[in-house]
Amino acid sequence: MQSVPDARTDERLPIYQRLKDALAERIQDGAWKPGDAIPAESDLAAEFGVALGTMRKAIEGLVVQGLLERRQGRGTFVRRADLGNTLFRFFRHTGKGGRPLAPTQRLVARRTGPAGRAAAAALGLAPEDPVLWLKRLRLVDDEPLVIDEIALPLPRFEKLATVPAADFDELLYPLYERVLGVTIARATDRIAFARATAAVARPLAIATGDPVVVIERTAFGHDGEPLEWRRSHGPAERFSYDVEIR
Amino acid sequence: MQSVPDARTDERLPIYQRLKDALAERIQDGAWKPGDAIPAESDLAAEFGVALGTMRKAIEGLVVQGLLERRQGRGTFVRRADLGNTLFRFFRHTGKGGRPLAPTQRLVARRTGPAGRAAAAALGLAPEDPVLWLKRLRLVDDEPLVIDEIALPLPRFEKLATVPAADFDELLYPLYERVLGVTIARATDRIAFARATAAVARPLAIATGDPVVVIERTAFGHDGEPLEWRRSHGPAERFSYDVEIR
DNA sequence: CAGTGGTCTAGACCACTCT
DNA sequence: GAGTGGTCTAGACCACTGA
């Protein structure tokens, strides 16, 4: 049987490609952690036995991919993915009278249960596989704006089932990293509109049947593995999103 | 009085930056037109008196910006911006039974009138400045899906006022290029939600007050000048949009 | 086959950051 | 001042395309 060519050693690939894969692997493996500085370009070039320019091209590629971040005169660092905040990405920030916004969040429910069809498809599980379900309400200036249902594959996220509810005050992705060492690198959102069900309308303090935005997100790790699925609902009138094309 | 440093000659900028600006200018000026091949990298390097690698870096930048397109072994070409199709970018393509979709479009109205507040702000005009207004209905499988109101600054788009209505069968950006030599390079969309007014509901064959998506687009030329503003409405239930983050 | 972009090298000097 | 990334050069060879 023919051995499958490894991305790092497949000689048909350009050197800089193989370097990219080798460096990316160090990040995935956690040898280099988010926030860390990686060795100097010249050191890396020497270590891999390539010209400086070739190593630069490899690093440049990872910078474009958002894995690394260069800081002139200081070094090259493993980037901490900033996937923004659904609240501010997708909703109008009605900063009335220039007052600073006060976004807060509250864990409404936490339970273990079957993934169901949508979450299972996104996470690569069977619908009956158990996941940790979180329900979270996000408010701005004490006004409910978004309700999230979040599915996290078990056993990987088991520890989150016992973390004190108060810890869910913070953003979730940093929490995953702190508690579980799980890093979210990338996510896909799908935006659509629907009518509010009773379960969604109540926490949002709107009427059943009112128009809502539905944002379904799948979040992935550096290795491309799906780690989290969530479905968020918010009042449609508050929704606003900007897209830049080309 | 100090002369303002030209992007192409400001010596504080890296050479490759100045090269980028010089090449971009040739595209803006129409010296190199969309679809054209530009001279070989080696020729350009010689012409500008720089090393090949430096010219490559400049070209690479324009490729990333979407101005140029490389084709291995053939040459480097001026890219024809493909701003996609609002229909397929933002709405579910319900290809029932695998039948190919039949998207069509119809010019519903064409008139000259004041820009009004929204269009004027986007186009950098005064609200009372005259623009050419187009109203266009877009259908898929003979079912109305999107109604567009399009504002085009006037004197520049004057010729479009007399072009036969049948020509509006095609996509607008290629039409602008063919009839006026105007190239759209970039656009910004803002997506929001509203209730259908009577004017919007009638052509879409929905009820007044039904939920609709509103997509406001400003389109720009290579020089960053706003060239077109449009507001599109479509039924909210048919809307679907995917966003990839980082 | 000639001409194009794609990869790679080995060196030089500059600009920035920190101590 | 030492160490980092940023720019630039001048050359070599490879891989692909089209006539």
Shape of chain A: elongated
Helix content of chain A: 25-40%
| Biggest sheet statistics of chain A | 6 strands, antiparallel
The CATH architecture of the largest domain in chain A would be 3-Layer(aba) Sandwich
Structural class of chain A: alpha+beta
How many domains make up the coordinates of chain A? 2
Compute the CA-based radius of gyration of chain A.
21 Å
Query: Which stretches of chain A of 5+ consecutive residues score pLDDT under 50?
Result: 1-5
Number of helix segments of chain A? 7
The residue-averaged pLDDT of chain A reads: 89
Taken as a percent bin, the fraction of beta residues of chain A is: 25-35%
What order do the helices and strands of chain A follow? HEHHEEHEHEEHEHEEE
Assembly status: homodimer
Distance between the termini of chain A: 45 Å
> What is the CATH third-level topology name of the largest domain in chain A?
Chorismate lyase
Largest interface, C-beta within 8 A:
A-B, 27 and 27 residues
Report the CATH superfamily of the largest domain in chain A.
Answer: Chorismate lyase-like
Order of strands across the biggest sheet of chain A?
4-5-6-9-8-7
